[in-house]
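We were asked to recover a plausible sequence for a given structure. The inputs and outputs are reproduced exactly as logged, with field labels preserved.

PROBLEM: sequence recovery
POSITIONS: 296
GIVEN STRUCTURE:
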């Protein structure tokens, strides 16, 4: 890690603020005034310990070399911790979805969905769970290339280690898989696939698929929408830590076609319905989803 004098980068403006740091737009004066994003992250957490989120993010970004994963260009120390120099992306999928003036075309939805799935497939192949797939963490370039960003919650996944526990306090609630809402600490990459299905659904619908304000309301909305989970389809459900803590009214669910009134092709809905599935073992993998008929 070279210690560049900050004079190499000319700070322009603050463009974002997340849980793990502030992001600024800047110019890289050594690379012909190339636009970059500089994310300032604390090296220590509030307890004075080295921040795991910061280390995870840096390690993941350094490991990943893929056209659909945000590239890290440089790191330099600063007063509060570290500055990560990242590719500059002018937009997020969240921003695009909020734009009423320019709604996403069907072709853009398909392209963005495929890029996201290919990026997730690359991560899962490398043994990495992102754990916070959502529109705000999917960045879009001025040439409409989508890249996955924000690896502060990323974790290596060890499928052979049955005893390994992961925190259930991950992913943003609207995109949080049901096994995690029921308290599971033994989840796997399928939790990213549930989130990916929710993102595709949101692109197709223009509004989030499940928008709860608490974890219990989130589960209630999922059950009302998908119908009550059947134990013959998801036998592991009863062993989840919070399964018996609250009961929900029995539900038959809503017809998928009614959830996507503007979708004229069943193939779009079919992709979502094979990702947004209760049993994580029955969800398509990212590699399978990227081969779905929707993209042919």
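RECOVERED SEQUENCE:
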């Amino acid at each position: 890690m070279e210690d560049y004098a900050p004079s190499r980068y000319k700070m322009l403006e603050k463009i974002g603020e997340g849980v793990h740091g502030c992001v600024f737009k800047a110019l890289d004066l050594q690379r012909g005034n190339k636009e970059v994003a500089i994310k300032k992250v604390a090296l220590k957490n509030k307890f004075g310990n080295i921040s795991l989120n910061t280390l995870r993010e840096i390690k993941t970004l350094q490991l990943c070399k893929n056209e659909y994963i945000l590239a890290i260009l440089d790191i330099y120390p600063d007063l509060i911790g570290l500055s990560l120099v990242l590719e500059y992306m002018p937009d997020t999928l969240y921003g695009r979805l909020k734009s009423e003036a320019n709604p996403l075309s069907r072709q853009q939805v398909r392209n963005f969905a495929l890029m996201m799935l290919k990026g997730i497939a690359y991560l899962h192949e490398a043994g990495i769970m992102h754990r916070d797939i959502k529109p705000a963490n999917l960045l879009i370039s001025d040439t409409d290339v989508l890249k996955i960003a924000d690896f502060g919650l990323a974790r290596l996944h060890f499928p052979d280690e049955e005893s390994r526990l992961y925190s259930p306090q991950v992913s943003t609630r609207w995109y949080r898989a049901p096994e995690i809402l029921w308290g599971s600490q033994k989840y796997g990459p399928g939790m990213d696939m549930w989130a990916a299905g929710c993102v595709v659904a949101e692109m197709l619908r223009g509004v989030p698929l499940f928008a709860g304000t608490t974890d219990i309301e989130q589960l209630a909305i999922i059950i009302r929408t998908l119908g009550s989970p059947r134990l013959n389809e998801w036998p592991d459900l009863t062993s989840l830590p919070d399964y018996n803590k609250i009961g929900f009214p029995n539900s038959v669910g809503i017809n998928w076609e009614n959830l996507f009134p503007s979708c004229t092709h069943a193939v779009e809905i079919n992709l979502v319905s094979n990702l947004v599935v209760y049993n994580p073992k029955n969800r398509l993998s990212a590699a399978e989803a990227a081969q779905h008929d929707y993209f042919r």
